Sequence to fold (238 residues):
Amino acid sequence: VANNLRSGVNTAGFVFSGVFHHIGLTKRHSFIFDKILKTHMMKKNRMHCLASESLMQMRVYVFIRMELFDLTITDIETDSEATGILHIYGNKGGVLVKFLIGGTSIGFVLCHLAAHSHHLQARKDNVFEILQGLRVGKKQFDVTSQLHHLFFFGDLNFRLDPGHKQGYESLHYHSNDNEYKEKYTIVASLIDKKEFSSLEKFDQLSIEMQNGEFLPQFREGLWRSPQQQHLQHSQQQH
Fold:
């Protein structure tokens, strides 16, 4: 699981990248953006776009280095699953690119989950709906049971929540909550010191994954760089 990852990450000669358009783009502008990105990746990085998929403002690309392009790559498929309004609107949901290379099946799921600290259960429900709804290959099975490697990333919206306990929804903390103020100060200090690995104990996603019931098939990458996390404290956010 790549937490709130929006930039490309190299893995075995591939780059997968998630793009979010927070303003509406016309079909023409989307086409232009798509062409510019693919041209740039080819000219500057010698990488070919293997496949892409979009759902409203979400767009996932998978690029492969040209020296690997001669490898046998088959079974390229894409799909999308909307989890927004009435479970049909694509402002929230996920998009998938999947393929087979050298006998190994790989998939990349870019997602946009429910926002706000107290909507933890909605985010978890979004994840379940996305992974169950994306159907490729043998469509009677979900993607987690068909692929050797599956990367789940994007705007996950899990928060840094000093008061969070496993299995409980977050509360709206008030500025006069002294215990929360103290925890907030600790977290803010860790951010200022760039001690990002120490923030994991306040991360909603990490806490929910600890007992192995939520996303048991996945493991989260190391916290080596700033995560785009939100720390709720009145009107102030990190």
Observations:
- The chain has four helices and eight strands.
- The first strand starts at residue 9 and ends at 11.
- Confidence is low (pLDDT under 50) at residues 1-10, 171-175, 229-238.
